[in-house]
Write a structure and sequence with these properties.
The complex is a heterodimer of chains A (611) and B (377).
Chain A: H1 9-32, H2 36-46, H3 50-63, H4 66-71, H5 73-101, H6 108-112, H7 114-117, H8 132-155, H9 170-197, H10 204-214, H11 218-238, H12 246-258, H13 268-277, H14 283-287, H15 290-293, H16 301-309, H17 325-329, H18 336-342, E1 368-371, H19 380-393, E2 397-399, H20 410-414, H21 418-434, E3 439-442, H22 445-453, E4 461-464, H23 465-474, E5 487-490, H24 503-512, H25 537-551, E6 558-561, H26 564-570, E7 578-580, H27 581-587, E8 601-604, E9 607-610
Helix pairs in contact in A: 1-11, 1-13, 3-12, 5-8, 8-9, 9-10, 9-11, 12-13, 19-27, 23-24
Chain B: E1 39-43, H1 47-58, E2 62-67, E3 81-82, E4 87-88, H2 89-98, E5 105-109, E6 115-119, E7 122-126, E8 131-135, E9 137-140, E10 144-146, E11 163-165, H3 166-175, E12 189-196, H4 212-226, E13 231-236, H5 246-255, E14 260-263, E15 266-271, E16 277-283, E17 288-294, E18 296-301, E19 303-305, H6 308-312, E20 339-341, H7 351-376
Parallel strand pairs in B: 1-2, 1-9, 2-5, 9-20, 11-18, 12-13, 12-18, 13-14
Antiparallel strand pairs in B: 3-4, 6-7, 7-8, 10-19, 15-16, 16-17
Helix pairs in contact in B: 1-2, 1-7, 4-5
The chains are: A mainly alpha (611), B alpha/beta (377).
């Protein structure tokens, strides 16, 4: 161990510097581009327990890939072995070099190429003594096994449990080739050195031994290290321009997210960070139903992110139905749907539309407002069922949009008309509050979501009718008879995944049908969503048909949904009757079950209940 | 789940005297009793089927005639008057059914054929779970189904009492019933919606059913003749009056009967407190939204295929109109030698077209059998 330098390390150092400088610059940009509110979130987050939670999440997600594991063990193993294995090689290489040099602040290349500078104790005994050679070989083996999975995945993705993999752009392919070569190159370089010196552990030692049987490894030592350095250098040169930028970006995302930062128009740099943290792993491809019906079209979020990252126009931007399945499948937790929505510019779709004047409902003493929503006006069966349920429960209610003139604003928002949406919102908020009602019930998950998330309605509860029915049942304001039938439940995207309303629909359905329906938040896309502005009707229909087939695979007597749009979408594509949860409730309502009204009462649920 | 309510379809309808009794065995039959060696099966008893069996028998070919209902005539039985000349449906039925009383024709009523199998020149006809018969050639005249208007829930069919289909209205006329408003007097207004279940990607129907336009015109005139004070509106996408006398009837409806035609689709219907129907639409010629309250809303429902389910045995969902091998020049079905199409199972057709198509299929079946027997000798 004389001088810890050889010219070949310069190659690596140059490449690594490119990545390093890029990363420092990026972190600065990400932080500088946050809104002042978000920056203060970060500032406060650093001095809180969130820091530790972020650290733990970084280890469990960036290194171990826990979420990928839980979804798909084979794919999880692949990601884990590459990330965790490589990380351990770096960490232990560093410890080993520090151990022997006693210098904590040596150049990085020293620990990266440590085996070149110090071939280690003689093979086979001595490898066991400090253990370094053995441990390093162990992790190299782990990485190599992961590499095997990665190669299999590229050519036979089904073997690792993926139906589809991302179609790479050329620069990604180049970086991928470099990445694949890193570890075999390292194995050969280390084995050459070990072979020349008769050192190494079970992997490098054995291979080195074999080399020395066949030829004299000594003259090949330096060329193989040059090659290894060259490969490493190529990878780090390419990293900032490829999907591998996710490697340094993902931990930054995890920390900022833990501190409470979210994708918003005010903090554009956070969107950029999200885009860089997308590893293009392709898990979203299988989650997306459009993969099935629009094969070869790059609609999915990994392609969307890549295009945005490259500064290009995202392909098929208006085809996406915004169902959110990709977002909940994403192991990195990239905010895919908010990013997509921010990218929908004011296109003018619906501009020039005469927005109808809103009708104020003054002087009407009601405790419940019923807002059917424009889509529910296309499914009058739901409205008549709700009438029946309200009347049966003895509620004092008012049909707010009986003439169907009001828009909640969300369809406009989904079409990129943010300004018009917020004007509508303001007007409607006022009219709701003026009514003096304490409860707003809506039949439409699309309306429900915007009422819930964006409307300011102090003193007013907002419920979707599935929640309302569930509460009526719980308070025994209505009674339903068992239907004796079986049912499957389609979770509407805006209700289940979008608003987290899972328990109540399950309760209502289980009280009506003998099927054990437990909504999971992983509902399919029905194909009818307002999110897809440009999608061809045949494609929508194919999505609907596919979803209906999956939902009715056990041949239920009835397919239940809780959204007028889903109902309308499914009806023409399945022979199994499709009903809204309100229609099913109204159908099996037992008459005369509501309690008699008394004068002394308190307000619960917006209607009068006995003390 | 939801019981389908068709307010004016009655299960115990009376036979209309003009052709009552013709279905009984006591009627005179024509044709000598010379033995026939080949037999052709005709599936379906509507106009196309009646025309086909009549033509086959006249060519001395034995016919097994299958009809799923217990009487022949098909949908003609439920019609009142036929456009454009307002000939009573019973009269057209009488003309067609006359040719079907023949020694060569064996009627099999109440027999639903759900699939046909072609095997070495013989064709088997199967019911739901058993074989019903065999034949040397088959003419499929299974007709069409009315589009299920409940799939356009925004119009409220099956939910609002005063929303009916054109088929329901035809039954009202045929039964001599009155179309009264909620107070029991003559309706102040009636609106027709064209293209319900036609040219509508939302319900997966891209084709034009061709005959709803003229049905709407005919029924609108009929209402104006019956109730002089009733305003009648027709909401259309565009009017397709292609047949003999259709365009003239369209003109007559406007000039002599004051029927108002509004270009624009109805977006939705709702029920007001009295049970009348509120209609929202757009007048695309005037570029303005319209709101209208009417006593009755009539949905001009399109024609849905009912035949390919028989051919392919694929069931409800795969339904589509069946294409002939050479649709311009013949009605033989590709890959199923000896199977021919007649009438609406090949696409929407009027009654004269169905009849011509039935006779044409009969001739093609005869040609096919001649050729086959000639070859085998």
């Amino acid at each position: 161990m004389e001088k810890l330098f050889d010219p070949f390390v310069l190659l690596f150092t140059a490449g690594f510097s490119v990545t390093g400088i890029w990363f420092i610059y990026k972190v600065y940009r990400w932080l500088a581009g946050l809104s002042s509110a978000d920056r203060s979130l970060v500032f406060h987050g650093v001095f809180s327990a969130r820091l530790w939670k972020a650290l733990i999440e970084t280890i469990s997600e960036s290194l171990i890939h826990r979420k990928v594991f839980s979804r798909n063990p084979r794919l999880g193993y692949m990601h884990m072995s590459l990330a965790f294995g490589w990380f351990m090689l770096i960490l232990i290489g560093n410890i080993e070099s520090t151990w022997y040099t006693g210098d904590l602040f040596k150049p990085i290349y020293v620990s990266v190429f440590w085996r070149f500078f110090d071939p280690g104790p003689a093979f086979p005994r001595a490898a066991w003594q400090p253990g370094f050679a053995f441990i390093m070989d162990l992790f190299l083996l782990l990485v190599l096994s992961g590499l095997l999975f990665a190669i299999v995945k590229r050519f036979r993705s089904r073997l690792v449990g993926l139906k589809r993999t991302t179609r790479q752009q050329p620069v990604d392919r180049l970086a991928l080739t470099a990445l694949w070569l890193i570890f075999p190159a390292r194995l050969i370089a280390e084995s050459m050195t070990c072979g020349a010196h008769g050192t190494g552990s079970f992997l490098t030692g054995t291979l080195g031994h074999l080399f020395s049987f066949a030829f004299s490894p000594s003259p090949l030592v330096l060329p193989t290290w040059w090659f290894y350095s060259f490969i490493l250098s190529s990878f780090f040169f390419l990293l900032p321009f490829t999907r591998y930028a996710h490697i340094p970006s993902e931990p930054v995302l995890i920390f900022l997210r833990r501190f409470g930062v979210r994708v918003s128009i005010e903090s554009p740099s956070f969107t950029d960070l999200n885009l860089h943290a997308c590893s293009s792993c392709g898990i979203c491809l299988d989650a997306c139903q459009l993969s099935e019906v629009m094969p070869g079209k790059q609609v999915q979020s990994n392609y969307f992110n890549r295009a945005l990252r490259n500064g290009a126009n995202p392909p098929h931007q208006w085809d996406c139905l915004l169902c959110g399945r990709c977002g909940s499948a994403c192991p990195v937790g990239v905010e895919l749907i908010p990013i997509r929505q921010l990218q929908r510019p004011d296109t003018g779709i619906g501009r020039g539309l005469q927005l109808p004047g809103l009708v104020g409902k003054n002087g009407h003493k009601v405790t419940i407002l019923y807002f059917a929503g424009c889509m529910t006006h296309l499914t009058p069966g739901i409205i008549s069922s709700m009438r029946k349920i309200f009347d049966q429960s003895g509620a004092s209610w008012h049909f707010f949009d009986a003439d169907g003139q009001n828009c909640c604003g969300r369809p406009l928002k989904l079409a990129g008309q943010t300004q018009a949406a917020s004007e509508l919102k303001k007007k409607l908020e006022q009219d709701f509050l003026r009514s003096g009602a304490g409860l707003l019930v809506t039949s439409c998950p699309i309306c429900f979501r915007i009422f819930n998330e964006e409307y300011r309605l102090p003193g007013m509860r907002v419920l979707h009718h599935s929640q309302y029915i569930s509460e009526l049942l719980e308070w025994k304001r209505i009674k339903v008879g068992p239907s004796g039938l079986s049912a499957a439940y389609h979770e509407p995207c805006e209700l289940g995944r979008g608003s987290g309303i899972l328990v109540e629909p399950g309760l209502v359905i289980r009280s009506l049908f003998h099927s054990d329906v437990t909504p999971s938040g992983e509902g399919l896309c029905c194909g009818g969503s307002l999110g897809g502005v440009a999608l061809e009707p045949e494609v929508r229909k194919a999505v609907a048909r596919g979803a209906a087939e999956q939902l009715t695979v056990n041949h239920p007597d009835v397919l239940i949904t809780a959204c007028p749009l889903c109902k309308k979408t499914f009806k023409p594509v399945t022979s199994i009757p499709v009903q809204d949860i309100a229609e099913a409730t109204a159908h099996y309502l037992i008459a005369g079950s509501s309690m008699p009204e008394r004068r002394k009462s308190t307000k619960v649920l917006g209607y009068e209940i006995n003390k | 789940m939801m019981p389908r309510e068709k307010p004016y379809i009655k299960s115990n309808r009376q036979e209309i005297p003009a052709f009552a009794g013709m279905t009984s065995d006591a009627q005179p039959v024509t044709g000598n009793r010379q033995p026939v060696t080949v037999r052709v099966a005709v599936v379906g008893g509507g106009p196309a089927g009646m025309a086909a069996v009549g033509a086959l028998a006249a060519m001395h070919i034995g016919v097994d005639w299958y009809e799923k209902e217990d009487r022949v005539g098909g949908k003609l039985n439920n019609y009142h008057q036929l456009f454009p000349d307002r000939v009573p449906a019973s009269e057209a039925f009488g003309q067609l059914v006359k040719g079907t009383y023949h020694n060569h024709i064996d009627r099999h009523l109440g027999k639903a054929i759900t699939s046909v199998g072609v095997n070495a020149g013989r064709i088997s006809l199967n019911g739901k779970d058993h074989k019903i018969g065999e034949a040397d050639a088959v003419i499929l005249a299974t007709g069409f189904d009315f589009f299920d208007a409940r799939h356009k829930e925004e119009f409220g069919y099956g939910i609002y009492k005063h929303v009916i289909t054109s088929a329901d209205l035809e039954t009202v006329f045929a039964d001599g019933d009155k179309l009264l408003n909620v107070n029991g007097s003559a309706p102040a207004s009636v609106a027709f919606v064209h293209c319900v279940g036609s040219r509508d990607e939302q319900v997966g129907v891209s084709y034009c059913s061709r005959l709803c336009c003229i049905t709407g015109i005919k029924q609108a005139i009929q209402i104006r003749r019956e109730y002089r004070e009733t305003r009648v509106y027709n909401f259309y996408i565009d009017m397709r009056a292609f047949g003999r006398g259709y365009e003239e009837l369209y003109r007559e409806a406007q000039e002599n009967h004051g029927v108002r035609f509004i270009r624009g689709r109805v977006s939705e219907a709702s029920e007001d407190e009295q049970g009348r129907i509120r209609v929202k639409a757009e007048d695309t010629l005037m570029s303005r939204p319209i709101k209208l309250t009417v006593d009755w809303l009539v949905l001009l429902i399109g024609m849905s295929p009912s035949c390919s389910a028989v051919l392919s045995g694929k069931g409800e969902r795969e339904k589509s109109f069946t294409n002939a091998e050479n649709p311009l020049t013949g009605s033989a079905v590709k890959g199923q030698p000896g199977v021919f199409l007649a009438g609406c199972c090949a696409g929407p057709m009027s009654i004269p077209e169905s009849v011509a198509s039935g006779r044409s299929a009969a001739v093609q079946a005869a040609e096919y059998l001649n050729k086959k027997n000639g070859n085998s000798e």
